[in-house]
Structures are given as structure tokens and as C-alpha cells.
Design goal:
alpha+beta; 9-stranded antiparallel beta sheet; 6-stranded mixed beta sheet; 11 helices; disordered C terminus
């Protein structure tokens, strides 16, 4: 297996990239997977790239998603387009694409499972792209993963820089703003290892979701949801609401796992809060905040596991929350992956993960996927991740005071208990 990442500003440059000395010998061999991650949520742009790709790589399976940040060779890019191409020697890929009208998500999940099962192959993993802002991706994913899966599932929800609910996914032929695209991987010599981690800590007291309608949380502790949320963080509902709340997700305790849910917008009529993934009535949660040091520590653990796996490529599907929390320091999390294997991915509006420990549409997380053909290449260079972790930790510590000051400012906005009295000692 070989993997290459490219960045583009114009479609014509893709022709010369695909005819480089490295790629020409690979064009007529095996199977290719092309992933396009782009800030340009324009169907014409994806279709233009797809036309060139099909001319140069006629047997390639092409998928794509609009993004809110692109990752190329482990580095953060913005307002760009990344094309990630994987060349497989012996593996088999199958592409499934569905338009999904509102209300059809659950049945579409069952259809995808049946379509994959009908292949009668040893499926090693499934990659998903969806439109979480226009489809109930939770309902689809829960339906799909409620079946007896023998393989991991991973991927991300398409994003939109302007947060205007204008997302798209691409299946190599058409773009869809209300769809689902899946790639099923199979092959006797193919190995796929996905991981996920969070890195957020609880900030508030524990509260209970007391009224829900679909993806809308109506009440928390029997109080209108936004009324209570604003009491804690004083985040106003305006055009910047989503960007301001990204760093403060709800941390739910579900099935002995902590999962995050990010508020998307507020319904001013009833002060309810809309989400892109499910929240269940009766669930308890705390408002959380991101800890860069914890994120670095947890990424180091996953990077060690991936390093031992000896992947030939790494795909990252990571929440926009992480990018906004860490800003340019986000590369302290993503760049070490590229020292293990060529790494590409995008910042999402939700992450898919179904593994041994959890099956859920996630928020605020990182999903990192290692993939290779054949047994581990023991001659592959081992990266000294420990030294890299020390360096990144020191970088974070230099900014700790700023982070803590920001957190204290928010905590200071929290109201004092009614029975609190200011006592002084003589």
C-alpha cells in the first residue's frame, strides 16, 4: 500500500500531480481510494476534481466532504482542498451512496448493512461521510451499528465554514446535501485499526436532561435549556453562538462512557437548544471544557498504539471543537501522526466510531484510523514519540496561564448559591 497527500488551489494542478514520477508507476495497479476534503462546498468544484481523477485513475473510488479545516501531512490547513490518495495492492473496495430524505435515516442504516452483507466478503472496515446538519445521522448510525457488525466503522460529518448548514458529500459522480456515502474495505492482507479519544473535563455541577424533542433539548432540570446554559456561561445567542460554545460541550454519561454533545443553535421561541447528535431524556451531564494538556497526553497514548500497529497511512476525522480550542497549537496533536505514516483528514461536524468499546456518533473527539496491507513492517522506522511528547507538553505549558485565566473568567460568571453568604474573619 502507498499513500499520497496533495493540496490544491485549482483543478488543473491536479493533472500534473497525478502524473508525477512517484504516481505514474502506480496508476495501473490494484485499487485506489481518493478522499477529497475541501473548504469549497461547491458541487462544481468537487465534480471538476472528480472528472480529472476519473480520467487519470479510472478504477479509483472517489469520495469527498466539505470541511471546516483540512489536514495534510498532519498539518492544519484552512480554506483549502486536500486530495488524499491510497493505492492498494490486493484489497477490494466497494462504494455505497444513498440520498436520505428526512425520516429515512433508520431504514437507510439497515439497507447499508444488508448491502455490505450481500458482498459475501470479509469486510475489514467501513468509512462513512454524511450531512449531519440536514440528516439525522445519529438515527442512521444507530440503526446501522445495531446490526451484528464484525468490522469497525469510522468517518466524519461534512462541515461548513460559514455555519450556514451548507454542507455536501461527494460519491465520485454527484454531490448531495442530504446523503450518506460509505466505503467498505475488504482483503485478506488488509488491516485497519481505529482509535478515538476526547480530552475534555467537566466544569459544571451535574444536571439532568428533562425534556427532549428529536435533536432539540427543551429543558434542563425543568428549566428552559438555553436559560440555564446562559446562566453558567453567559454566551449570547447571536451569529457567533456556535463558535463560542464549541469549547463547552455537554459531557454525557452514557453506557459507562463519557461522550460529548455540542450545542448548534438556539430556538428563540422556547429557549431550546438544537444539537447535531442525539441527547436522551433523563441523561445526566456536565458542561465541559477542553484541556490542551490532556488532549496532548491522550493523543500520545493513541500515537504509541498506532506506531506499534505500523500503518502505511493514517486518516484523521476530528471535531471542529478541537481546532477552535487549540488554534494553531492543534498541530501539536495532529503532526505526530504524520511521523508514523502519511496522514490526512478533515475537521468535522461529528465523528463516527464503532469499535470494541463504543458505537456512537461523537462530538468533540478525534477519530484516528491506521491502515496497512500485509504484516507489520518491522524494519519501518520507529519514531521517538516520547521526546516529541515532552516538546509538545512544554509548548502547552507555556500557554497554560492564558488558558487558566480564560477558564477562571468563565467560572467567575457562574452565579453564587442562594444560601451563600460573604463571611470575613477577623
Amino acid at each position: 500500500m502507498k499513500h499520497f497527500n496533495f493540496t490544491l488551489t485549482e483543478s488543473e494542478s491536479l493533472i500534473s500531480l497525478l502524473n508525477s514520477e512517484e504516481l505514474i508507476p502506480l496508476k495501473g495497479t490494484g485499487t485506489q481510494l481518493v478522499q477529497i476534503f475541501s473548504a469549497r462546498n461547491e458541487p462544481d468544484w468537487f465534480i471538476a476534481l472528480g472528472k480529472i481523477l476519473k480520467q487519470e485513475l479510472p478504477s479509483a473510488y472517489i469520495i469527498g466532504a466539505s470541511s471546516v479545516g483540512e489536514i495534510c501531512d498532519g498539518k492544519l490547513l484552512t480554506d483549502s482542498t486536500v486530495v488524499a490518495i491510497s493505492f492498494f495492492e490486493n484489497s477490494v473496495l466497494n462504494l455505497f451512496s444513498y440520498h436520505c430524505n428526512a425520516g429515512d435515516e433508520e431504514i437507510t442504516g439497515k439497507i447499508l448493512f444488508k448491502d455490505i452483507k450481500s458482498l459475501n466478503t470479509n469486510t475489514k472496515g467501513v468509512l462513512l461521510f454524511t450531512n449531519p446538519v440536514s440528516t439525522d445521522s445519529t438515527s442512521f448510525f444507530n440503526s446501522f451499528t445495531s446490526c451484528e457488525l464484525s468490522y469497525p466503522v469510522f468517518g466524519g460529518g461534512a462541515g461548513d465554514y460559514a455555519n450556514m448548514r451548507d454542507t455536501l458529500i461527494y460519491d465520485g459522480n454527484t454531490c448531495d446535501d442530504q446523503g450518506i456515502v460509505a466505503i467498505a474495505f475488504s482483503g485478506e492482507t488488509l488491516f485497519i485499526e481505529p482509535f478515538t479519544y476526547l480530552g475534555w473535563h467537566p466544569l459544571s455541577k451535574e444536571m439532568t436532561i428533562t425534556k427532549v424533542d428529536g435533536m432539540s433539548v427543551k429543558q434542563i432540570d425543568n428549566i428552559p435549556a438555553y436559560t440555564l446554559f446562559k446562566k453558567y456561561l453567559d454566551i449570547k445567542y447571536d451569529d457567533s453562538f456556535f463558535h463560542n460554545v464549541l469549547e463547552f460541550p455537554f459531557l454525557l454519561n452514557r453506557d459507562n462512557q463519557i461522550i460529548a454533545r455540542v450545542p448548534f443553535f438556539v430556538n428563540e421561541k422556547d429557549n431550546s437548544i438544537e444539537f447535531l447528535a442525539d441527547i436522551r431524556e433523563g441523561e445526566t451531564f456536565r458542561i465541559g471544557y477542553g484541556n490542551p494538556q490532556t488532549i496532548i497526553n491522550e493523543s500520545f497514548q493513541i500515537q504509541n498504539k498506532l506506531s506499534a500497529f505500523k500503518p502505511e497511512a493514517i486518516f484523521l476525522y476530528t471535531c471542529i471543537c478541537r481546532r477552535f480550542l487549540m488554534q494553531q497549537d492543534v498541530e501539536l496533536e495532529t503532526e505526530p501522526f504524520n511521523q508514523i505514516a502519511p496522514t490526512a483528514g478533515f475537521y468535522t461536524f461529528g465523528e463516527f466510531y464503532a469499535g470494541k468499546d463504543i458505537k456512537a456518533l461523537l462530538n468533540s473527539t478525534m477519530v484516528a484510523v491506521g491502515i496497512r496491507e500485509g504484516e507489520k513492517d518491522l524494519n519501518r522506522a520507529t519514531i521517538d514519540l516520547f521526546l516529541l511528547k515532552i516538546k509538545n507538553t512544554l509548548m502547552i505549558l507555556l500557554k497554560t496561564n492564558t488558558h487558566e485565566y480564560f477558564l477562571i473568567c468563565y467560572i467567575s460568571l457562574m452565579p453564587l448559591p442562594k444560601n451563600w453568604k460573604n463571611k470575613t474573619t477577623n
